[in-house]
Amino acid sequence: MILSEDYLQNLLDKTIPQIHSVANCAVVLEGSIAEGFGNSSSDIDFLLIADSDADLPTMPSLLFLDGRRVEVRTRSVRQLAEQFSAITTDTRRHVGAVSEDLLNRCQRLLRSFPLRNPDLVAKVKGLMSFDDFQDTMREWWAHHARQSIRYALALRELGQDEEAAAWTEAGLLQAVKSWAAGRGETYLEPKWLPMQLDRIGDQPLCDRYRTLASREASGLDTAEYITEGVRLTADLGVAGAEPDSERITVARATGVTTWQTGDRVHVVRDKQDVFVLGDRAARAWRSVVFGRPLGSVVTVAEASGAPQAGPLIAQFLRFGLVKVAWKGDGPIVPAMPLAAPSGPVTPPPSIARPIVTVGGAAVGGEEGIDLVPMPARRFSAAAMTLVWSNVLVENAREDLTGALDREQWSVAELSAQRMLRAALRGVLSAHGVNPLPPDSEVARRLSLLPAGADTDEIRAKARHLATLTIASAAQGSAALTALDDFVALVRHTVGAHSFPSSFDSSDGWRQTLEMGYDWLRLGAHLDADLPIDEASDLLSSGGAQPHLATT
């Protein structure tokens, strides 16, 4: 740990009187500091364990003590037993179905540092063998790596080399996380990966990964990068993603139907969304034959009068109108853990943007009575995601400043990219894009936004910021300034210029909760998807933190 046990015990003594705690509970320190990572901006993460079968809140409470942000979570022994049991059950069914949130909670507990009642801590840690958990993490990351690399190979068949390289980069990260988990480095969040590899030690595979960790920095062209990335993924122990164009087939998407009126083709998705196709797109659509290899489908489409069919079919794939599958192993379903949820991309409606701001829907004028051009559930979901993206910007900025303070340049680069991508999530959400594209594609999917002075400037600056390098204090300072300017531009564009600094003070966190609570109430009324699980606790508590003692 980077903090002494005496300091932590003293901080815990100051924390307990401010929360509703349980008598004789156990307390552990979990998270990055317990792992031996962390920096001056890292949370102090306390988990209180009650020796009972109570239902304790999922949402943490935040305190600000001694210049540190203290996060307090509570779990009962029954809840912890159920968490471990759920991992075992889901792993037996399908390791890819195990919730990343569940894995994260269990990992943090298993690698935590006991501060009070060590006997109870040992009891709950004994509910799952760390060796078994380590195997689960290795297999879980390998599953995601396999799906990402397969998807990259599919995109390459469609001529989408840049996106294929981005998914190769994502797959490599997942593959090296699998490899590292097999060596005891099970911490879930990728931001500490550079330090995890340093802790593993001098290994040729680590060196190869560092060379390929970023497509931009690798020095390879796109085709070479994909080839080397696929090869390294296999060498890291992830099987089942070998280049074989005959294995990648086109598959039918559930709930998608085609309707033609005259010469015009419409494709209806899930009885909610209608896509109308232009003549060239319609010819490509009619050429799709399910079950055939993807490459041959593209060839047939182009021969039948649909030039550049690959990019068109790639759009069908992004929008969930078709799927790709790995022959003999079902659909290819890539995902990026701890990033935006995967799923079909919904392009923005066809009028001026933004549609929604943090303060409410955009309106055309003082006397306007304007219909929001998107379904109500998606509108509220986009609004909640817009708010949450701004919270993530604040969180990533805090990680960035902490990493710069400790001269952790690799961690700083990862934090800078998280800050950029979180801001771009907000831009897309404000323009009605929901669900969001995965983080590996979020900058490229700015192409979905309409042209305009603000959006054109955002696109241009995002392209520049995506290639930031931080290897010195000067570069770090310049990157922080550029990102702050970019966030200010984004927030001005999407009406979030007054968003509070969520993690600097209790007042800032209170304002953030109040802002999020207003949108959560609307989202709950419409049965919209909540951005995080803890949001349900915020609803049930009436907008208040669940653990704070009343004064």
From TrEMBL:
InterPro entries: NT_sf. It comes from the Bacteria. This is DNA polymerase III subunit beta. It comes from Streptomyces violaceusniger. The lineage of its organism: Bacteria, Bacillati, Actinomycetota, Actinomycetes, Kitasatosporales.
